[in-house]
Every structure is written in structure tokens, then in C-alpha cells.
């Protein structure tokens, strides 16, 4: 096996060297020369660009194949799986390791539930922009993150308008619920009558768990119970369900 790996590595190294030497002003220059090193860096950057482009094309393909309803259902399934996994431990007093570290596991599960929510919000927004022409137009007209985008930005990339918008949407922080809901109102071109107060509290608590090791800004330790985790799951489901309902109503209107 190692022989095969060594052979492939040598072939790759030879390909890189050939690529560089084809572009050298003087083929006799060695690997230590400044020009050779510059071309080696150029090759590395080009390969990184190809990898990023492949990943981006794969994401675009996934967005085209998965509508917002599919994304929501997948999200609910993952939330349910997380809850089942946690409940199986909460209800098993025989699991001594879990009992001794319940608070840690609850906080980890709590934080992951919010991570799932953030992914759902991001994927759904990107799906709307990707699949719905009107949503794309609404985003172009109203998204604050696009106010500074210029037509020259398109000329500097290989992206079309939709792909460029998706790039910017992908950089949004989806734990900022008020900002995210505003973006959904803009892309759907309607006011959303959704109570976000509980979900905002949940995402703020997740921030303390992840960034302060489970402590508040004043240093107080956060204590979470299994019931707190279950309540968070229910609130996240209610919020996402209300949002998905609004999306469905808008798309079928």
C-alpha cells in the first residue's frame, strides 16, 4: 500500500514540477529560485480555487435538489434524533458516566440543537434565493448585505448574480434571530407574525455555553436540566414550523 502511495505522490510532484517549468522564463532555474517559488505558490492557489469551486458547485446542486420543505423536514428529523438520543440517557440512571456529567451533556445537546437551527435557517434562505426568481429579486432590492455590492464584483469572479447573492447569504450569522427574521421578511416580501422571544433567549444561552464555557457575562454558572433541553427543542420546532408555514403560504399564494 505504501508503495502505491509513494508512486502517486511522486507522480503528483512530477506533475507540479512540469507545470511550473512550462511557465519558467529559464528552465534551468532550480526549486530555490524566487521565480520557481512564486509559480509554486500560484499553482497551490489555483488548486485551492478549484477545490472551492467544486465545493460551491456541489452546494448549488444540493440547493436545486432540495426545496425548503425538504430542508425543514430533514431539520425536524435531526432534532427528533437528538432528542431521542438525549432522552435515552436522561432516562437511564444505570449510565453512571452520564449521571455524573449530566450538565455537560445537556449543554452540549442544547448547543447542538441551536446549531441545527442555524443550519436550517441558512439552507432554507439559500434555497429560496436559489429556486425562486421573485425571492432573488427581493433579496437584490432589500438585503442590507448587498448594498455595497457592485457590478464590478461580478466581473472579478466567475459567478452569476444568483451565485454572488448566495455567497453573501452564506456569510450571514444565523444565530442573530432578529436579523435573520428581517431577511426572511425581505426575501418573502411580507411581515412575519412570529414570536421570536423564546428562540432569542435560547440562542443567547447557546452563546454563553459555547463561548464562555457555560457561564454568563458576569461569570455565573449556567445550570441546565433535561427539562430545559426538551423545552428548547419544542420552542425551536414551534419557531421553525411557523416560519416554514409562512414560506409555504407565500409560495402557494
Tally the helices.
11
Number of strands: 0
Overall 3D geometry?
globular
Rg for CA atoms: 24 Å
Specify the structural class.
mainly alpha
Order of helices and strands: HHHHHHHHHHH
Q: What's the pLDDT, averaged over the residues?
A: 83
- pLDDT < 50 runs, ≥5 residues: none
Percentage of residues in helical conformation: over 70%
Please state roughly what percent of the residues sit in beta strands, choosing from under 5%, 5-15%, 15-25%, 25-35%, 35-45% or over 45%.
under 5%
The N- and C-terminal alpha carbons lie at a distance of 60 Å
Explain the overall architecture.
The protein is 74% helix and 0% strand. The longest helix is centred in the first third of the chain and has 32 residues, at 34-65. The protein has 253 residues and is an all-alpha fold. The mean pLDDT is 83. It has helices at residues 2-21, 34-65, 68-90, 96-100, 102-131, 133-142, 151-155, 161-169, 177-188, 197-211, 226-252. α3 runs antiparallel to α11 (226-252).
Amino acid at each position: 500500500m505504501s508503495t502505491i502511495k509513494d508512486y502517486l505522490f511522486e507522480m503528483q510532484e512530477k506533475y507540479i514540477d512540469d507545470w511550473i517549468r512550462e511557465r519558467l522564463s529559464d528552465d534551468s532555474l532550480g526549486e530555490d529560485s524566487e521565480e520557481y517559488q512564486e509559480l509554486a505558490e500560484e499553482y497551490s492557489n489555483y488548486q485551492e480555487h478549484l477545490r472551492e469551486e467544486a465545493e460551491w458547485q456541489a452546494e448549488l446542486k444540493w440547493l436545486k435538489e432540495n426545496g425548503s420543505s425538504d430542508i425543514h423536514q430533514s431539520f425536524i428529523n435531526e432534532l427528533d434524533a437528538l432528542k431521542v438520543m438525549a432522552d435515552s440517557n436522561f432516562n437511564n440512571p444505570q449510565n453512571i458516566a452520564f449521571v455524573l456529567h449530566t450538565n455537560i451533556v445537556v449543554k452540549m445537546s442544547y448547543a447542538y440543537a441551536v446549531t441545527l437551527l442555524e443550519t436550517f435557517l441558512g439552507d432554507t434562505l439559500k434555497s429560496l434565493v436559489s429556486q425562486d426568481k421573485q425571492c432573488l429579486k427581493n433579496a437584490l432590492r432589500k438585503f442590507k448585505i448587498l448594498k455595497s455590492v457592485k457590478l464590478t464584483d461580478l466581473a472579478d469572479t466567475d459567478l452569476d448574480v444568483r451565485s454572488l447573492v448566495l455567497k453573501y447569504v452564506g456569510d450571514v450569522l444565523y444565530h442573530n434571530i432578529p436579523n435573520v427574521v428581517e431577511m426572511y421578511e425581505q426575501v418573502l416580501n411580507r411581515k412575519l407574525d412570529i414570536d421570536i422571544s423564546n428562540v432569542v433567549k435560547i440562542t443567547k444561552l447557546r452563546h454563553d455555553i459555547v463561548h464562555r464555557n457555560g457561564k454568563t457575562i458576569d461569570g455565573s454558572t449556567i445550570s441546565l436540566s433535561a427539562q430545559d433541553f426538551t423545552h428548547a427543542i419544542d420552542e425551536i420546532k414551534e419557531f421553525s414550523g411557523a416560519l416554514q408555514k409562512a414560506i409555504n403560504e407565500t409560495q402557494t399564494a
